[in-house]
Specification:
single chain; about 160 residues; alpha/beta; 2,3-Dihydroxybiphenyl 1,2-Dioxygenase, domain 1; 2 domains; 4-stranded mixed beta sheet; 8 strands
Length: about 160
Amino acid sequence: MQKITPCLWFDTEGEEAATFYTSVFPNSKIVDVAYYGAAGPRPEGTVMTVSFELDGQEFLAVNGGPEFTFDEAISFQVSCETQEDVDSFWSTLSEGGEEGPCGWLKDKFGLSWQIVPTRLPELLSDPDREKSQRVMKAMLSMKKIEIDALERAAAEA
């Protein structure tokens, strides 16, 4: 049984966000929706929490109010085997949000994601230090990570 569940604080968009995220990732679903009752503190009948899974990982969305917002101190990393996967996650998650450097983006809810091809850490940890530094330099010039460009940088002599 999973012991740690990320809890994401939203103002009122928890259910919308959970629905969006479960549509993006395979093997994902909304597990439960709980509503505020008469005791509040938000209006009775509004969504309080949404339990959901993204590819088997449990999450909880809480509609707690506008007091807290997301920042880059927390992000979720998505490992991608292919450029097609990188492109798909990048375009879907950044739509309505904001593209950042080095594979980082913010989605339309302000949550930060890192879309990382599995090839990137392999190339960055290459024992040939010059090769890994060329890959680092190439990656630092990108927004969305392009695997072919990383491979070209690694192959330069």
